[in-house]
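Fold sample X.
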Amino acid sequence: MAAYLTDERWREIEDAARGSAARLLGGEPTFEAKRLPNRDWRTAWHDHFDLVRIPGARPIIIRPPHIPYEAKPSEVVIDLVPGLAFGTGQHQSTRLCLRLLADLIEGGERVLDVGTGSGILAVAAAKLGAESVLATDIDPLAVDAARQTVRQNRLSERVEVREGSIPSDEQFDVVVANLTADILQYLASDLSRALAPGGRMIASGLIAARQDEVTQTLTEAGLTLESVRGEDEWVALLLSRS
């Protein structure tokens, strides 16, 4: 485990930290303190976040603003500053959703992104050609992050970010829910109602070991499983509503 503290703060808590660690871990845990050179920590993430490429017929590039990139005609480029909200394109579940969105969006769709996090999937849907996108999240920090991502990509007219969950009075052509197995099961009925007849839903954020139980819950809610896409131990389900 690593923590970054000022010299003054470390001196204040060193004895307490060592005592707490000894009680929790037993014995005499080893602490190593190093003095780091002063720098602008607001931009330290530059060292660890590079271009992310999502291959496919319509490749998606996630670009941090400090890296210049000249896009090819077939590529979709998303500008993203990584922050506290989930979704940078580096996690398998996010990449699976992006690949499926690139396959599904043909142009003119109304899209719902549930649990939008950083807003990366909502922005991707709009840049792939969706007519309008509603992105929702119950976390105020995620809502702020998603709105920033939307503004960075100049999509405020087509992507709306709301604090909340699934609207009860609207239906969408495409629903993407990159959540967890438990939340997908909890929201199954609401997700099904939000999908217009003939619409398609991407459900991700679950490991392969829980694929069958989540699929069963979603099909019991009125959805039909069309296909499964996987990467490592993670899977994404593509479902439809007849």
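Fold sample Y, listed below.
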Amino acid sequence: MTAPLLRLSGVTAYYGAIQALKGVDLEVHQGEIVTLIGANGAGKSTLMMTICGTPRARDGRIEYDGTDITRLPTHEIMRRGLAQAPEGRRIFPRMSVQENLLMGAHGRTGPHAAASAEEVFALFPRLKERLEQRGGTLSGGEQQMLAIGRALMSRPRLLLLDEPSLGLAPLVVRQIFGAIRDLNRATGLTVLLVEQNAYQALRLANRGYVLVNGAITMAGGGAELLARPEIRAAYLEGGH
């Protein structure tokens, strides 16, 4: 097997004196969807932020495309082909949909930005209908589409998705996950997905990891983890 696109080896991270990540080992290969599941406060979002350099990993090593990025500044990391749709969406509420998308283009202007925008509209047609509308007036589902669309504007090789289903109705969640699946199949985009909705995440993912109190406790194929009784008991409401 080829070297992973993203590799974390023994990564620790702290908030002050509190250790949030405890020697995390994780790999994401080109073209995969890999999910990280765990309860609230397990350290999932911290892991995503640590990959991006904030907070900085205290120990261990983070490699992207064969290069050590552990100590690089965040803007340098993102220029290498990573993009993040963060937890809570964090769109710019006073900016229009179009302006929000352009903020994600990372210097891609003119025809390049327009081509990226058309790809986003093909994935989320609703955004094209709302192009001049302020981000803050969109529904929760539309804001999540905008957050993902903004991340895709730079045409990343690796998309980091943090809790895309948070606070959304089940129908919208299915639409969001369907769009991620279609994008991966059509373009080969690599995705690292952090989710509390373990059922949807493991159904979508090629592989998954379980994070408990800052440490990886289990790893395997998405379908394999979905079938495990301990996963079903802990994250799927007793298996229902």
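Sample Y note: The longest strand covers residues 18-28.
Also: The chain has a mean pLDDT of 90.
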